[in-house]
Amino acid sequence: MPTTVKAYAAPSATEPLVPTTIERRDVGPHDVRIDIRYAGICHSDIHTARSEWGPTTYPIVVGHEIAGVVAEVGPEVTRFAVGDRVGVGCMVDSCGECASCRKGEEQHCLRGNTGTYASVGRDGQPTQGGYSQEIVVTEGFVLRIPDALGLDVAAPLLCAGITTYSPLRHWGAGPGTRVAVVGLGGLGHMGVQLAHALGAEVTVLSQSLKKQEEGLRLGADHYAATSDPGTFERLRGSFDLIINTVSAEIDLDAYLSLLAVDGTLVNVGAPEKPLSLAVFSLIPFRRSFAGSTIGGIAETQEMLDFCAEHGIAAQIETIRADQVNEAYERVLASDVRYRFVIDTSTLD
Ligand code: NAP
Ligand code: ZN
Prior knowledge:
Blueprint: E1 3-9, E2 18-24, E3 31-40, H1 43-49, E4 66-73, E5 85-88, E6 91-93, H2 99-102, E7 114-115, E8 134-138, E9 143-144, H3 151-154, H4 160-170, E10 178-182, H5 186-197, E11 201-206, H6 212-217, E12 222-225, H7 229-234, E13 239-244, H8 252-256, E14 259-267, E15 288-291, H9 297-310, E16 316-319, H10 324-332, E17 339-343
Parallel strand pairs: 10-11, 10-13, 11-12, 13-14, 14-15, 16-17
Antiparallel strand pairs: 1-2, 3-4, 3-8, 3-17, 4-5, 5-9, 6-7
Helix pairs in contact: 4-5, 4-9
The protein binds NADP nicotinamide-adenine-dinucleotide phosphate and zinc ion.
NADP nicotinamide-adenine-dinucleotide phosphate is lined by residues 42-44, 47, 159-160, 163, 183-188, 206-207, 211, 245-248, 250, 268-271, 292-294, 331, 334, 336.
């Protein structure tokens, strides 16, 4: 029998989120039922709730930065037991058989992975995310949260952490590399901490100098305001890797001019409108423009363990569920320091 749990849902693209109830499937042989304690608010939740990436099916419960405690396990579950501290990120399933899944890159599942929300789950129902009391997930998509990390500050690692860790690792951020992180929001503040811990020289490129002190405290070596045209002159050709986390359109050509020879600008920000660039921003220095999406399950576990080992976590502002609409407005105004996390016990 499915279980009814409390949640917060967007009823349409234009209305505020409201309290509701949703059904969670019965625990199957390989499933884990998680008592959700905290759910981070990712900008992707807002893009989806407002149909900015194409039409969303309503009502929708978003949230893919989930931390909680195992409440029940199916009879075939081998890796988790009741009481374990666990997390769920942006995916809850994939085919498990294609070349990407076999490589442990479930995010690139050739048949399409099952998103934590806005996909179709094993029960044939639309998947519903973390702004809720419980979730049922097949054990292969459940992450272990190390004891050194609080569940509240670990929640945002499940998306913001892995989305920045994966490209930093893939493009070789480390000692001797110069990395710029564009946008000091949820993803950006994780990118800065992770790039610093990996040994790179880190620069924050933010719209203003308002967050400079905190950016430097998070591990940045340099901080520059992109509202100052002098920044683009001064930093021309000076980065090996730029991670763009901005949720809105930016002038890509200006940022590409900051890349050194063979440098790469990786776009993880996913704005509603297309971005354009001039090929002559890439040609002269053999520059690359790339995209990246989250990371595989094994890499996500590696990132969580890396964070625990290096004392890294999200900087959060914990809110009640009924403050979620207000939090959305603050995220949209770049007024987030640096991730809102819903205390899901306030759904009661
Ligand atoms: P966020 O917390 O809102 O951070 C975005 C930051 O971008 C803001 O804090 C702000 O930083 C900067 N910014 C916002 N509007 C801007 C503008 N008009 N011009 C220049 N800079 C601007 O969002 P987030 O949760 O980190 O997510 C960022 C983006 O990544 C979203 O589009 C999200 O959907 C996407 N995302 C992608 C993946 C993936 O797998 N690729 C995963 C998660 C999220 P400053 O104030 O410092 O300028
Ligand atoms: Zn996200």
